[in-house]
Specification:
The structure is a single chain. The protein is of the alpha/beta class and 244 residues long. The chain contains nine helices and eleven strands. Strands 5-4-1-6-10-7-11 form a seven-stranded mixed β-sheet, with helices on both faces. It has a two-stranded antiparallel ribbon with strand order 2-3. A two-stranded antiparallel ribbon has the order 8-9. The radius of gyration is 17 Å and the shape is globular. The relative contact order is 0.19.
């Protein structure tokens, strides 16, 4: 089974423009992410997929592999699907460019899903992290996920899901952690499907998979990473590194 990592890297992020090139303890965020993927030693190849000249040059300067995105894309899955179309591989792992602290343990769990899936019913796998603080649960920047009894995703939302009608009912809330592993065929199907209504409403790309009937296996992890979505997140990341 051939496994490659693709890191979509768009310079103009809506909430925090240029975030991937922001300094994080002496290195740009995108370099931290790329090096974390390499360090895992889980992939046959690691690529950064970008339409940005400055990101492309930065990765090449450290000897990294880049693929130039030829089209405009609204989401990371579209960007890496275009890039992987002519690459021979079985599994594609989408490592978010703004997730510089991805851990090897969680990546191994994702990859093992496909090694165990002999009937090939799983189209993609992703991670979920339990969250407890009310502020985090209600934060619309945190995408929440609910699953069935077999841990297949039912829905993702920026809203609080599930709604707890009775306050004494014990419910665990989960945040979606932005790392995916796809079968290449599922990724190309996504690429060839127009944006779906709920995906457009929530601005959450993985909803498109659900809307067209794909099966998403969610893997729980207790290891929380710091995604760089805001300037405040960048400061958290700097503090985290200073303690390492």
């Amino acid at each position: 089974m051939t496994i490659i990592a693709m890191i979509p890297a768009r310079y103009q992020a809506s909430r925090f423009p240029g975030k991937l090139m922001k300094d994080l303890a002496g290195k740009p965020v995108i370099v931290r992410t790329y090096e974390a993927a390499l360090k895992s030693k889980l992939f046959d190849e690691v690529y950064v997929v970008t339409d940005s000249e400055i990101i492309s040059q930065t990765i090449q300067n450290i000897g990294g592999k880049i693929i130039i995105s030829k089209k405009e894309h609204d989401c990371g899955s579209d960007r890496i699907a275009e890039a992987v179309e002519n690459i021979e591989t079985d599994i594609v792992v989408n490592v978010q460019g703004d997730e510089p602290f991805i851990d090897t343990i969680s990546l191994k769990k994702l990859i093992s899903v496909f090694k165990k899936d002999t009937t090939k019913i799983i189209d993609l796998a992703s991670l979920k992290v339990p969250i407890k603080e009310k502020k985090e649960i209600e934060n619309s920047n945190n995408v929440k996920v609910i699953t069935d009894v077999n841990n297949f995703a039912i829905y993702f939302s920026r809203s609080v899901i599930p709604f707890r009608r009775e306050k004494d009912q014990n419910i665990t809330y989960y945040k979606h952690k932005g790392v995916y592993a796809f079968r290449k065929s599922a990724l190309l199907d996504f690429y060839n499907t127009p944006t779906t209504p709920l995906e457009a409403a929530e601005k959450i790309e993985c909803i498109r998979y659900l809307e067209v009937g794909k099966k998403i296996k969610m893997i729980e992890t207790e290891i929380e990473s710091i995604g760089i979505d805001t300037p405040e997140d960048l400061e958290k990341a700097k503090k985290y590194l200073s303690k390492q």
